[in-house]
Design goal:
This protein has one helix and nine strands; from the N terminus they run E-E-E-H-E-E-E-E-E-E. With 163 residues, the protein is mainly beta. The protein has one domain: Beta Complex (Beta-clip-like), CATH 2.170.270. The strands form two sheets. The chain has a five-stranded antiparallel β-sheet, with no helix packed on it. The chain has a four-stranded mixed β-sheet with strand order 1-2-9-6, with no helix packed on it. Strand 1 and strand 2 form a beta hairpin. The chain is globular, with a radius of gyration of 17 Å. It binds S-adenosylmethionine (SAM). S-adenosylmethionine (SAM) binds next to strand 2 and strand 6. It holds the Pfam family SET.
């Protein structure tokens, strides 16, 4: 089990006026019932960092694989590696949007948390979306299909590895 290298207590925050909509084109998604002003902390989420082996041998074969974020670690030899982390709390519920990203997130590897903040004012009724980066392995429902492009029809794996 990874433990934080920074031992100071971590104040938690969550913007209270949120709900999960269960039937969006992206599955479940996070929405607000009140306007969220720019820079508001939406949530501070503790993370569970998975062992490199644990991920490769087990998690990659489970549904959790679609929820983990890349997480920088030092291995037993002090070499930089990219592990996977399960984000506890609402962090795992944010969907991806390229065009309409309205939430930014920041890792704190010393405290093993991620903080999510409003990138701009978010009106009631707009989904809260982060960016998963450029290596999507599922079909992004925000992308309008191009009927002339047969590649659009190619089936893609439904998984993410958030950068
Ligand atoms: C971290 S989960 C987000 C919560 C998820 N929607 C749920 O219902 O549990 C990531 C998964 O949500 C879906 N997803 C997220 N963003 C998407 C997008 N832009 N287009 C299509 N599916 C998306 C994909 O199935 C992806 O593997």
């Amino acid at each position: 089990m990874a433990t934080p290298s920074n031992k100071t207590d971590i104040p938690l925050q969550r913007f209270p006026h949120l709900y999960i909509k269960v039937d969006t084109p992206k599955g479940r998604g996070v929405f607000a019932t009140e306007i969220i002003p720019a820079k508001t902390v939406i949530e501070v989420c503790p993370v569970l960092v998975l062992g490199l082996d644990e991920n490769k041998k087990h998690i990659e074969y489970t549904s959790l694989y679609h929820y983990t974020y890349n997480w920088p670690i030092l291995d037993d030899f002090g070499k930089k590696q990219v592990a996977q982390a399960v984000i506890l709390g609402l962090g795992s519920m944010f969907n991806h949007s390229n065009q309409n990203q309205n939430v930014v997130w920041e890792r704190d590897p010393e405290r093993l948390i991620i903080t999510y903040k409003a990138l701009r004012d978010i009106p009631v009724g707009e989904e809260l979306c982060i960016s998963y980066g450029s290596h999507l392995t599922f079909k992004d429902t925000d992308d309008a299909p191009d009927p002339m492009d047969p590649d659009e029809e190619l089936e893609q794996l439904n998984s993410i590895q958030i950068d």
